[in-house]
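A reminder from the course coordinator: this example appears on the midterm review sheet, so study it carefully.

Given structure:
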C-alpha cells in the first residue's frame, strides 16, 4: 500500500508548529483578555507559555517513542492498553480540528469583507475549498505555504512589539496591575490558552517528517518557546500604546494598536496580515485533521476508506475530502469566543491524558527507546507532566456549564460512533 511521503525537516516542522500556534487567537482574544487581567495580561500569557511547555515536553517524549499519525490515539492506546479510551481522545482531537477550521474560516470571512464585498459564509467556504486543494496537492506544498504565511503573521506581531516598545507613552504602565487581581489573571489565562493550542497537531504529521524521533521533539519545544516569547512581548507592548479598558472593547485590538502607533494605513496592513494568520491556522488545521482521520483508519477504528493514499500526490485524499465537507457544514454555526472555549476544554482533557500517559509509560514501558525525555525527574518519575496534569484538571473546572455540556455531547457522539464502528468491524472482520 502507498505510504505518506517524508518531506518535512526541522526548519519546516518548526515553522509548521509556530504557524499552528500563532493564529487567530492572539489577534482576536488579547482584547478580551485585557478586560480581565488589565495591564498584567502578560502574566496570563506567561502562564500559558509555561503550561503549553509542560504539555510540549510530554508530546516531545511520546513522539520520540511513537512517531505515528493519529498521535493521541497511539499514545493513549500504548499507555493505557484501552482501545475505547484511546479512541475517545483521538475522536475529541479530530472533531475539535474540524470545528476550529470552520470557525476560524468564518473569522477570515469577516476580515475579508473589509476588502471584498462578499457574504462571510461564502468567503469561509471558498477558503476551505482552496486550502483543501493545497492540502491535497501535497505536504511539501502545504509546508512551504505554511512557512510563508508564518513569516508574514510573525512579522505583524513583531511590528506590534516594535511599535509598543518605541511608543512615547506619557504615563508609565504598571505591569502588575489587574482590575480583578489574580482571579482576573486566572480567567484571562484560561481564555487565551486557545492562542497556544495547535502545537499538539505537529505529532499527527509524524509520518511525513524526516527522522521523526529526533526532529519532532526538537520542533515541538522550539515552536512553543518561540511562540511564547512573541506572545509575552506582544502583551507587554499593546498596553503601552492603548489602555487596557479600550483594548477590552475593541473587536480588532492588534489593528487598533498599529493604527494608534503608525496611523490609519497600519490598520489596513494589520488587517491584511490577520488574513494571512487566519488562513495559516485553517490550512494547518485541515492538514492535521486529515492526518488524524488517516491515522485512526490505519489503526482500524475509523472506516478503512479514510486510509487511502492518492497514488500521485501521496496524500490521504479521502480523509481530506471528508474533513472539507464536515468543516463546510460547521460554517453554518459558530461564535469564535464560544468555540475557542469548547476547543480549549477538549484540549485540556487531551493534555491531562497525555501528561498522565508519560508518567504511566515510564513504568510500564521503561525499555522503549526515547530520543527525548522530559527533564526534571525523581528516579523514573517525571515532575513536569505531574504539574501539567494538575493544571489541566484545574482548568477543566473553570469553564461555563454550556461549554462543558457541548464537550460532553461531542464525547457522547464519539461513544455512539465507536459502538457502531465496532459492530460493523465484527460483522466484517
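Designed residues:
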Amino acid at each position: 500500500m502507498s505510504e505518506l511521503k517524508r518531506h518535512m525537516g526541522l526548519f519546516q516542522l518548526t515553522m509548521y508548529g509556530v504557524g499552528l500556534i500563532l493564529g487567530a487567537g492572539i489577534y482576536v482574544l488579547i482584547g478580551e483578555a485585557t478586560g480581565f487581567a488589565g495591564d498584567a495580561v502578560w502574566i496570563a500569557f506567561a502562564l500559558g507559555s509555561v503550561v503549553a511547555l509542560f504539555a510540549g515536553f510530554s508530546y516531545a517524549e511520546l513522539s520520540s517513542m511513537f512517531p505515528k499519525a493519529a498521535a493521541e490515539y497511539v499514545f493513549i492506546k500504548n499507555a493505557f492498553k484501552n482501545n475505547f479510551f484511546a479512541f475517545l481522545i483521538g475522536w475529541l482531537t479530530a472533531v475539535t480540528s474540524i470545528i476550529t477550521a470552520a470557525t476560524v474560516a468564518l473569522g477570515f470571512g469577516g476580515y475579508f469583507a473589509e476588502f471584498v464585498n462578499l457574504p462571510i459564509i461564502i468567503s469561509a467556504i471558498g477558503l476551505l475549498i482552496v486550502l483543501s486543494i493545497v492540502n491535497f496537492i501535497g505536504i511539501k506544498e502545504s509546508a512551504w505555504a505554511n512557512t510563508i504565511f508564518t513569516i508574514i503573521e510573525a512579522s505583524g506581531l513583531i511590528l506590534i512589539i516594535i511599535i509598543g516598545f518605541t511608543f512615547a507613552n506619557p504615563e508609565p504602565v504598571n505591569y502588575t496591575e489587574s482590575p480583578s487581581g489574580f482571579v482576573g489573571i486566572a480567567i484571562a489565562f484560561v481564555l487565551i490558552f486557545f492562542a497556544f493550542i495547535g502545537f499538539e497537531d505537529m505529532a499527527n504529521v509524524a509520518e511525513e517528517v524526516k527522522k521523526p524521533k529526533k526532529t519532532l521533539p526538537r520542533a515541538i519545544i522550539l515552536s512553543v518557546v518561540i511562540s511564547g516569547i512573541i506572545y509575552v512581548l506582544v502583551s507587554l507592548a499593546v498596553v503601552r500604546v492603548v489602555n487596557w479598558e479600550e483594548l477590552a472593547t475593541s473587536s480588532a485590538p492588534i489593528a487598533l494598536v498599529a493604527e494608534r502607533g503608525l496611523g490609519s494605513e497600519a490598520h489596513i496592513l494589520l488587517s491584511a496580515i490577520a488574513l494571512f494568520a487566519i488562513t495559516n491556522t485553517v490550512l494547518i488545521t485541515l492538514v492535521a485533521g486529515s492526518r488524524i482521520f488517516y491515522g485512526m483508519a490505519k489503526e482500524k477504528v475509523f472506516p478503512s476508506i479514510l486510509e487511502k493514499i492518492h497514488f500521485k500526490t501521496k496524500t490521504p485524499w479521502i480523509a481530506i475530502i471528508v474533513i472539507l465537507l464536515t468543516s463546510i457544514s460547521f460554517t453554518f454555526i459558530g461564535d469564535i469566543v464560544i468555540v475557542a472555549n469548547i476547543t480549549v476544554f477538549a484540549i485540556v482533557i487531551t493534555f491531562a491524558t497525555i501528561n498522565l500517559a508519560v508518567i504511566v509509560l515510564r513504568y510500564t514501558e521503561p525499555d522503549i527507546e526515547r530520543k527525548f525525555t522530559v527533564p526534571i525527574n525523581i528516579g523514573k518519575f517525571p515532575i513536569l507532566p505531574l504539574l501539567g496534569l494538575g493544571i489541566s484538571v484545574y482548568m477543566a473546572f473553570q469553564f461555563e456549564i454550556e461549554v462543558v455540556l457541548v464537550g460532553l455531547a461531542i464525547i457522547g457522539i464519539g461513544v455512539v460512533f465507536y459502538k457502531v464502528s465496532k459492530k460493523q468491524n465484527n460483522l466484517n472482520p
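The chain has a mean pLDDT of 85. The beta strands are 377-378, 381-382.
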